[in-house]
Design a protein that fits this description.
Layout lengths: L1 E6 L3 H12 L7 E4 L7 H6 L5 E2 L14 E2 L3 E2 H14 L4 E2 L4 E6 L8 E5 L2 E10 L23 E2 L11 E5 L3 H12 L3 E5 L10 H12 L3 E4 L4 E7 L2 E6 L7 E2 L2 E4 L6 H7 L4 E2 L2 E2 L12 E3 L12 H18 L12 E2 L2
Parallel strand pairs: 1-2, 1-9, 2-6, 4-21, 9-20, 10-17, 11-12, 11-17, 12-13
Antiparallel strand pairs: 3-5, 7-8, 8-9, 14-15, 15-16, 18-19
């Protein structure tokens, strides 16, 4: 069990781990779960090499409240800065950890949350969501998704409990392969539809695991398959393919692993209160669920924040965590980490 699990290795998540270390929390009790292969995927994906990451992004004041602060830097300088933070503050990150499910629990050991991921199951006293708002699910454009099947056509693994069902996964990347493995563990009958013949986007571990599952008859893989239509057949999705060799079939669920994510589903599953503007939280990012905090873009709003606003949200969350949730004792100290 951990004292603090953080979902997302962006600026807010890394800052919270650093603030927790500085607050005296044992670094072995702090864990970041990151679905990608490295930290700060949004900066890596969205910024050209020479584009500046600006301290006052979108007009947010560049005023730092805690340990970490940045000036205007290039993309490589920004990533190097975070590499140093991770090293200096002993930040423990589990990469390639796609979170599939989260639930509240009550145990004699003090654990409040159970988190299921592609890298294992974890329990923690405090849970912080630092998922960025850049992610949005990529939806298919070639065919219509019937509104009547909304509960059966999914874009992540968090919004529904799926067990002992016939499920079609659509996609050919690592997320799709990990969904297949997880669904099989939940006693589902799994089919994978991929538009190409070869899985050249998979890491070696997922590639080998997927093909081994196929060899054992644990998954049916429809290579060179393109969905032509999804129809509502008595409340279940009926899938028709453009290729005649792939026969139409009716299933219980379809899960699209086409890229992007939808953080709202993570929050709903944990019982966070919402209004028309989104999740409800206090000035520290604390929610109506005891021990559950939101940081980074999730507390700034839909237009997104800056690296510094993410840092500051982590400072406020950690102050509350030390008062409300964990026993903290400031560590004699690393100097404040500021880019210069």
């Amino acid at each position: 069990m951990h004292d603090l699990i953080i979902i997302g290795a962006g600026p807010g998540g890394i800052a919270l781990a650093a603030e927790a270390f500085a607050s005296g929390i044992d670094p072995s009790q702090i864990l970041i779960l990151e679905k990608g292969p490295t930290h700060n995927s949004a900066i890596r994906q969205l910024y050209p090499e020479k584009k500046l990451t600006t301290a006052n992004y979108k007009g947010f004041a560049a005023r730092c409240e805690g340990l970490l602060c940045v000036r205007d830097m290039t993309k490589p300088e920004t990533l190097q800065f975070f590499d140093k933070i991770i090293s200096d503050y002993h930040v423990n990150i589990q990469f390639n950890a796609e979170v599939y499910g989260m639930e509240r629990r009550e145990g004699n050991d003090g654990a409040r949350f159970r988190v299921e991921s592609s890298q294992g199951v974890y329990e923690t006293r405090v849970l912080a969501c630092a998922i960025g708002i850049f992610g949005r699910p990529k939806k298919p454009k070639e065919y219509r998704l019937p509104p009547t099947l909304k509960e059966r056509l999914l874009f992540d693994m968090t919004s529904q409990q799926i067990q002992n069902e016939a499920v079609l996964v659509v996609g050919g990347g690592d997320t799709a392969a990990e969904y297949v493995q997880y669904l099989r563990q939940q006693d589902n009958r799994v089919t994978l539809s991929y538009r190409k013949a070869d899985f050249n986007r998979l890491n070696q571990q997922n590639h080998d695991a997927l093909l081994a599952m196929e060899a054992r008859g644990e998954v049916e893989i429809l290579r060179n398959s393109n969905i032509k239509e999804i129809a509502d057949e008595a409340g279940r999705p009926r899938i028709s393919f453009a290729e005649p060799e792939h026969t139409a079939r009716t299933l219980d669920r379809v899960i699209f692993a086409l890229g992007g994510t939808t953080p709202t589903n993570f929050l709903h599953t944990l019982g966070i209160a919402f209004n028309d503007d989104g999740p409800l939280f206090n000035e520290a990012g604390g929610t109506n669920v005891e021990g559950l905090y939101l940081i980074g873009d999730l507390v700034v709003g839909r237009k997104g924040g800056s690296i510094i606003t993410a840092f500051n949200s982590a400072v406020r969350a950690m102050k509350s965590i030390c008062i409300q949730d964990l026993s903290c004792q400031s560590r004699p100290a690393l100097a404040e980490s500021r880019s210069s």
